[in-house]
Amino acid sequence: MKNKDTNSREIVTNKKAKFDFELLEFMEAGIVLTGSEIKSLREKRANLTDAFAKIKKGEIFLEGFHITPYKDGGYANHPEVRPRKLLLKKKEIFKWEKQVKEKGLVIVAVRAYFNDRDFAKIQISLAKPKKLYDKRESLQKKDAKIEIERALKSRLRN
Questions:
Q1: What is the per-residue pLDDT across 3-28, written as a single tens digit (0 to 9) for each?
Q2: SS3 track for 129-147
Q3: Predicted TM-score of the model (pTM)
Q4: Could you tell me the domains of the chain?
């Protein structure tokens, strides 16, 4: 996968995913949205915290992706949370479906953004759930990194 971060506009990221899951493989997917959903995304009014993907009948759907209703949407506004279809090739869906069933992995939404052509995209990841002790280990590493940075800053000042 090419790194397209240079021309993308970030909408929202799922910071909780990195804490709760060990992210193994990433994939970019298009998403089917209505007009009012796109307008809300342009205002960055979305939440990916509990978003995950399910595979049903050879299609992949994003569940738990919260998009706040557009303030000027009127009667044609969208529901906040609904299953949204992701656009991937059949071969990619089949490959990930196989890994989910065999290895007990899950598909988690990591970030949402607009690409250089102004299309809304979702970065999804094949993830392995962390155990409680793995989460504690992650926190200890983070705290150690912060302590090292503080020590280096104070050393540079002196």
A1: 545 556 888 888 888 888 888 999 99
A2: ECCHHHHHHHHHHHHHHHH
A3: 0.74
A4: 5-130 (2.40.280.10)
